[in-house]
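Quick start: read one record
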Amino acid sequence: MFHIISNPNAGEGKKKKLQRRAIERFRALGQAFCVHETEKPGQAVHLARQLSEEGAGDLIVMGGDGTLHEVLNGMTNFEQCALGLIPAGTGNDFAAAAGIPTQPEAAVDLIVQSRPQYTEFMQLPGGVRGINAVGTGIDVEILRRCRSSRWLHGKFQYLISLILSLIRFRNYDLVARVNGKEQAYKTLIACVGNGYRIGGGIRMCPKAVLGDGLLDFVAVNDVKKSRILPAFVKLMQGRILEESFARFERCERIEVVSDRPFTVQVDGELYDGLPFVVEVVKDTLRMYRK
């Protein structure tokens, strides 16, 4: 049995059509399934907890990175329940990292015709889990602008918010503790990637490889105003690590601290006051992916 947890608000209105196509494909393949639609933010967490505790079947997310984040944070019975994803969000960044097709029929075929693989996720304090990226700095400012905008939507909204944030942003003073070293940064962004991209295609952690058991830490350190435009171009090209002010390390655990409170984004969800302590969790979550 597949339990499809669906967010009707994902994907800017295209969701219903994608859901119909996915359901038709499950039926064509003779699969038993049940659809559970969420009605409010956070409901997917409770649905995933209830369904995984019952151990009645695998959980399939029909939505974007936000719905996937909620479902992961609700799962309790990893031994009995695997996780699948049918991308139907705006950015679908983790789907890209996991090699999950954006066409719903192909995503359903991957779920039905393959075996779930162990897939890393990220553990933070307070029981918060992430699967794609954790960060602080300009990415938080971008997300705040996106949430406050009434006129722009989708990837274009993120891009405009990124440009505005680059113009106005000031560096954060942070200290990163990783691989037995401590390094101070005046950073534009500090990001830990399990997946390689954020914001609907921006390759913030271009070398991240799902399944390698490691997290990629990328910090843009003390970038000058005159270098903002070249940095932006390199970022959009997935070549940010070529810049001298970019710092990169692979790790299993990282702690980022500051002398002032800051907000952390986890898979695009904002957490005020959450300690930026991230550990990789391996050999626990099983997921349908390439």
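The mean pLDDT is 92.
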